[in-house]
């Protein structure tokens, strides 16, 4: 039951001695009272729905009534000019002076009451009594972002979230999320729980269906046991509310562009660079000054083009749109929320084969069978339809980066030009001309819950739930030859020669995967208030099983590229394969919460967890969590002496959690089929080989998490501060001892629970809100810092201290330290350098001072591709019918190794060569032109290419206008809002060439996106 309705029922019980059994029954009238008034009226919400059960009191008396099921009330014998007070749990109270006329009262939902509760594991808690580090964001805030992927909307809004978005490719554009950073050498992904059950698909949820998202960051997560060490994300979907049916429709149209594409060197510049590279290698220049001039003046686009491969391949603007329709409402016995949604996301290529389409449906139903039994039934379905060309995004952008501006992407007559290599002309490979890849994923999630109140024990109830999830995934890749054109060198009239590229004959690969998960949960709950004492507890049992199957088939030698069915393929070289998997878990868990006067707070939860990933006898483990808090502001000494600070709470927690997200069956000797086989007669029989050496003592990682927090409100709640300090020590991390075993032994050891990592940091949230007449504003600032340190890594004893993993961050890289660029030969001669070093090369530091540069001069750089600090600044304002929200987000502490694959093999970003070292520019800020990996400072990873990726973004901008209620009522609707939103509209950083969240590598990736969006929401 929703907490505010529980309060409403309790309030009605308290008023039972005052009010008549029938809410509208009038009080007896004495003859001398006949001059007073009989007041009648109706109470509705802002959408016009009647509100039953509203308390109507004559101010400063105990006389009153409650509204009936239609929202009507009547009170006799009321003096003229008396004041009626209308009160209902979850709504702001209203006072109204009576004058004898019928009253029409509208109550607005109280934002303070709505924000009073926070979702935690297997339940809810009042914020004032929570003792754990739990942060929550409302679904309405997530809807302000035009992102179609929910994971991209969390960072900056919720403290404790560290996220990196490394691609904007439709269907694969999600952020990698860490809760309070990384604490393990293995899998660091948080557990996602949707409506009470661990489920996949969070990224693809419809934001309009989400009521709230909570993040469990400390002992509060221990209730999820061996899966909680990386934190827990709890998602709660919307449910129906009482009242007449309400239909809402939303539509938005987005215009999408890349946040940043590299500006590549033009043809004259590249031709000059090619000459320089050849000269450095002792070869003759390729281009004359006259030819270089022709590349620039456009006089001969056939032989001397100046090609911008990005312009030839990438659209200026791509489209994205979403439709959403929902129906909600209900009666005293039944409430419902039903929604339909559809979205389309196009790729950024011209004639793009890349796009993502999704259809989703949800039905959440709640039924009250009687005063003892309540039922809940949820059903959600989703179709994820991903479409791509057979060439990957990395392959396409590799060709774009390498595209030489001195060659034609498209001939002046419109035919596609020659390939870079292997048929890779991105003008063609980004389209369906080379075939297609289709990936359809059908997902169904079903949940049934029954809650039974035990009538003979107050506060005791049982709830049982069953969840069943099923998905079907069908993938199909059809590759066919494509045609590119080269210029006939013997022709005088620019004749083109067509040539077949790619595969020699069409090829088809199909695969089918299915997975099904079922979970049974049974809980015994007890909630009771004894005077000033509040007790809540539950004990539960849960069991989950997961099964899956997959099948694949391949054929080639199709008679035509118009027939893309397996049956049309040839029988030679055809292949098929299949496999299956099965997992199971069993858990016993519970929690007890106690508080006295909402001042002294205590929580304890524990889980006895089991998983099949570990051997018998080591499968079960106990994971406890304890937390306590003290609301000092409730004490008399505080109330009497500290008036500016209306609320102050301190809290602390300790929790022990696990991480069993490791490859399964490591305790068994496992075998696999070898690629070849053994001949028996004329038949080839498959042979098997041992895959791993078993470890019969394997178990889960163990995380001990400590947290200290404080919460305070000042200046009549206009300023709020919440701060956390946390420390986590993760032990039993699975790593092999191979690093400590000499290579000459030839031994490959199994993983062991020997790794240890610590992680510590802090979070801070400052919020200020105020009203200046009709103008309301709110400012919220968040900051999160989390940095890990490897405390134990099985390292070889002869590794020098400056190269050891131990003491550094997870994945901290090993690089030569670059300390500048040689400007002159004299600088080269006077330094310790590698053989062949020359002016324009990058200088490596002699770390160990042994007068030579070798592998011992590499250092462990204590930075990774993941930031250690995340900042968020949200500013909202409302005035009259206008509303405005702006979210700034920043990240610091990360670096990315990005070095382009350039040289004779392909083009350079303009920024790298614009101020390069040359004999004429000896003080250039970039080294001399290089050819791929030929130079030592290119083929040996060094800090020169380790880019500082600190950035600040205008992450979200939302500006809306609500049509006045009187006008809406006139045209028969409840409300109508139009809005403009934007995503990643502005980025401030020092990278400039690529997006600061670019993945490590050569810049060959599908870029992040900038979104401009217009939309409307209408409710009937």
Automatic annotation (TrEMBL):
Domain TonB-dependent receptor plug: 129-232
Keyword terms, alphabetized: Cell outer membrane, Membrane, Signal, Transmembrane, Transmembrane beta strand, Transport
InterPro entries recorded: Beta-barrel_TonB_sf, CarboxyPept-like_regulatory, Plug_dom, Plug_dom_sf, TonB-dep_OMP_SusC/RagA, TonB-dep_OMP_SusC/RagA_CS, TonB-dep_rcpt-like
Signal sequence annotation: 1-26
Coiled coil spans: none
Any single Pfam family the record assigns to this protein: Plug
Gene Ontology annotations of biological process type: siderophore transmembrane transport
Single GO MF annotation: siderophore uptake transmembrane transporter activity
Primary site of residence: membrane
Gene3D superfamilies per the UniProt record, alphabetical: Carboxypeptidase-like, regulatory domain, TonB-dependent receptor, beta-barrel domain, TonB-dependent receptor, plug domain
Subcellular localization, as worded in the UniProt entry: Cell outer membrane
NCBIfam families, sorted: OMP_RagA_SusC, SusC_RagA_signa
Assigned protein family: Belongs to the TonB-dependent receptor family.
Annotated protein name in UniProt: TonB-linked outer membrane protein, SusC/RagA family
Source organism of this protein record: Chitinophaga jiangningensis
């Amino acid at each position: 039951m929703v907490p505010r309705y529980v309060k409403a029922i309790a309030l009605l019980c308290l008023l039972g001695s005052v009010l008549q059994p029938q809410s509208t029954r009038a009080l007896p009238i004495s003859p001398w009272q006949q001059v007073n008034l009989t007041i009648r009226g109706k109470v509705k919400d802002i959408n016009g729905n009647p509100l039953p059960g509203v308390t109507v009191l004559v101010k400063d008396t105990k006389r009153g009534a409650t509204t009936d099921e239609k929202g009507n009330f009547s009170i006799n014998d009321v003096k003229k000019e008396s004041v009626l007070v209308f009160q209902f749990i979850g709504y702001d109270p209203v006072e109204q002076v009576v004058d004898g006329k019928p009253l029409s009262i509208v109550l607005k939902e109280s934002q303070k009451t709505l924000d009073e509760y926070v979702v935690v594991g297997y339940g809810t808690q009042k914020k004032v009594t929570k003792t754990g580090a739990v942060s929550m964001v409302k679904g309405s805030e997530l809807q302000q972002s035009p992102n179609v992927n929910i994971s991209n909307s969390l960072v900056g809004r919720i403290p404790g979230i560290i996220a990196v978005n490394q691609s904007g490719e439709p269907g694969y554009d999600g952020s990698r999320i860490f809760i309070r950073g990384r604490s393990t050498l293995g899998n660091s992904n948080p557990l996602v729980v949707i409506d009470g059950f661990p489920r996949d698909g969070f990224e693809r949820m419809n934001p309009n269906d989400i009521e709230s998202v909570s993040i469990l960051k400390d002992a509060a997560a221990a209730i999820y046991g061996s899966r909680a060490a990386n934190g827990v994300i709890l998602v709660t979907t919307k449910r129906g509310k009482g009242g007449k049916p309400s239909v809402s429709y939303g539509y938005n149209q987005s215009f999408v562009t890349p946040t940043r594409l590299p500006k590549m060197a033009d043809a004259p510049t590249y031709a000059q660079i090619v000459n320089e590279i050849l000269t450095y290698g002792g070869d003759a220049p390729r281009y004359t000054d006259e030819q270089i001039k022709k590349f620039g003046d456009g006089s001969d686009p056939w032989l001397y083009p100046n090609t911008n491969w990005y312009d030839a391949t990438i659209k200026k603007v791509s489209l994205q749109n979403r439709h959403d329709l929902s129906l909600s409402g209900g009666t005293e016995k039944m409430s419902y929320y039903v929604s339909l949604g559809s979205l389309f996301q196009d790729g950024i290529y011209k004639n793009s084969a890349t796009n993502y389409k999704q259809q989703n449906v949800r039905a959440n139903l709640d039924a009250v069978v009687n005063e003892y039994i309540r039922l809940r039934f949820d059903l959600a379905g989703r179709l994820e339809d991903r479409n791509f060309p057979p060439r990957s995004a990395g392959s396409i952008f590799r060709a774009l980066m390498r595209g030489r501006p001195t060659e034609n992407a498209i001939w002046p007559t419109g035919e596609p030009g020659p390939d870079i290599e292997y048929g890779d002309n991105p003008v063609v490979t980004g389209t369906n001309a080379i075939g297609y890849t289709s990936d359809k994923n059908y997902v169904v999630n079903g949940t049934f819950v029954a809650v039974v109140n035990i009538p003979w024990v107050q506060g005791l109830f049982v709830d049982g739930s069953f969840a069943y999830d099923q998905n079907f995934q069908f993938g199909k890749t059809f590759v066919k030859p494509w045609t590119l054109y080269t210029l006939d060198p013997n022709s005088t009239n620019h004749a083109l020669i067509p040539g077949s590229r790619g595969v020699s004959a069409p090829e088809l690969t199909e695969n089918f995967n299915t997975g099904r998960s079922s979970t049974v949960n049974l809980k015994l709950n007890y909630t009771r208030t004894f005077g000033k004492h509040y007790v809540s507890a539950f004990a539960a049992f849960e069991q989950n099983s997961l099964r899956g199957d997959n099948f694949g088939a391949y054929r080639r030698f199709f008679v035509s590229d118009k027939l893309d069915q397996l049956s049309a393929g040839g029988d030679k070289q055809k292949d098929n394969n299949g496999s299956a998997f099965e997992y199971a878990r069993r858990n016993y868990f519970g929690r007890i919460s106690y508080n006295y006067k909402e001042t002294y707070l205590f929580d304890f939860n524990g889980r006895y967890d089991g998983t099949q990933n570990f051997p018998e006898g080591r499968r079960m483990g106990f994971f406890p969590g304890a937390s306590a808090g003290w609301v000092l502001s409730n004490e008399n000494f505080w109330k009497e002496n500290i008036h500016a600070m209306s609320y102050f709470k301190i809290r602390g927690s300790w929790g022990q959690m696990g991480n069993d997200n490791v490859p399964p069956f490591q305790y068994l000797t496992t075998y696999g089929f070898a690629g070849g086989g053994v001949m028996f007669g004329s038949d080839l029989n498959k042979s098997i080989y041992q895959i791993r050496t078993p470890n019969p003592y394997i178990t889960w990682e163990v995380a001990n998490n400590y947290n200290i927090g404080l919460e305070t409100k000042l200046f009549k709640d206009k300023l709020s501060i919440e701060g956390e300090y946390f420390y986590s020590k993760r032990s039993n991390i699975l790593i092999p001892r191979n690093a400590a075993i000499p290579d000459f032994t030839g031994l490959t050891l199994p993983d062991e629970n020997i790794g240890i990592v610590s992680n510590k940091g802090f979070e801070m949230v400052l919020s200020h809100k105020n009203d200046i007449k009709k103008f309301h504003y709110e400012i919220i600032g968040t900051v999160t810092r989390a940095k890990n340190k490897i405390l134990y890594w099985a390292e070889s004893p002869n590794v020098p201290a400056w190269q050891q993993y131990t003491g550094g961050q997870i994945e901290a890289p090993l690089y030569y330290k670059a300390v500048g660029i040689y400007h002159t030969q004299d600088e080269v001669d006077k330094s310790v350098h590698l053989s062949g070093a020359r002016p324009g090369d990058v200088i490596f530091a002699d770390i160990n001072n042994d007068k030579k540069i070798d592998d011992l001069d590499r250092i462990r750089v204590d930075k990774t591709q993941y930031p250690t600090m995340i900042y968020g600044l949200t500013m909202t304002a409302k005035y009259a019918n206008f509303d405005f929200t702006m979210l700034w987000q920043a990240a610091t502490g990360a670096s990315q190794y990005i070095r382009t694959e350039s040289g004779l093999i392909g083009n350079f970003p303009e920024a790298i060569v614009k101020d390069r070292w040359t004999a004429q520019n000896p003080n250039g800020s970039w080294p001399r032109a290089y050819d791929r990996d030929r130079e030592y400072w290119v083929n040996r990873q060094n800090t020169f290419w380790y880019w500082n990726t600190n950035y600040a973004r205008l992450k979200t901008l939302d500006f809306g206008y609500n049509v006045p209620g009187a006008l809406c009522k006139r045209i028969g609707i409840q409300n109508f809002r139009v809005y403009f939103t934007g995503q990643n509209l502005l980025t401030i950083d020092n990278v400039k060439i690529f997006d600061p969240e670019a993945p490590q590598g050569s810049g060959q990736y599908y870029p992040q996106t900038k979104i401009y969006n217009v939309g409307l929401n209408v409710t009937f």
